[in-house]
Amino acid sequence: MSENVVLQVEGLCFAYPECGVLNQWSVALPAGLALVRGDESSGKTTLLRLLAGELTALAGRITLQGVRLSDAPKAFAQMVFWVDPRAGDLDKLTASGWLDSLPAHYPLWDAAALATHIEGFTLHEHLDKPFYALSTGSKRKVLMAGALASGAPLTLIDEPVGGLDKPSATYLGRALAQVAGQPGRVVVVAHYEALPGVPWGTVVELNS
């Protein structure tokens, strides 16, 4: 793996019983922002779950900063931020309770960045609410504030603008641009189109 590659994926294969998704899929991502673009059912979320180690590939290798997922799953997991925005795992937690739990998991956690994102996403009034009481947009904003502040070498964000109002979508673009230059970190965003003004370093197309 060359020095500037943070995430190396080689020959990834995955299929559901009813359909194939990835066949010998490979990519090498340097530090910066990577967009995984594709239509509905093209496998964007499945790919993120594979990269997070939440799903197990049928074949292939995933290596993050020299750590191979199959060889050291715990060490690998400690370098990844991933929360499925559609899952209900966090429903009973308050937004602030969840955010307060994150620094213990992420050595590169940036408290100042979190404060900036809370302000930018106008989250103050929602912090004491449980996740189940949040709107789709507010829930995604909380998750993205945590993701961007985590400093995780591999940060995975799925369909970021779902339910977002225009000011929050505009702030998201600025926030992504700010993390684009962080060394040793790749932020992978899955979306059906490129977000305006975001300096994508890599764009990967998935075909359904």
TrEMBL record:
Keywords: ATP-binding, Nucleotide-binding, Transport. Residues 35-161 form the ABC transporter domain. Gene3D superfamilies: P-loop containing nucleotide triphosphate hydrolases. Pfam families: ABC_tran (PF00005). The lineage of its organism: Bacteria, Pseudomonadati, Pseudomonadota, Betaproteobacteria, Burkholderiales. Coiled coil: none annotated. This is ATP-binding cassette domain-containing protein. InterPro entries: ABC_transporter-like_ATP-bd, ABC_Transporter_VariousFunc, P-loop_NTPase. One of its GO terms (molecular function) is ATP binding.
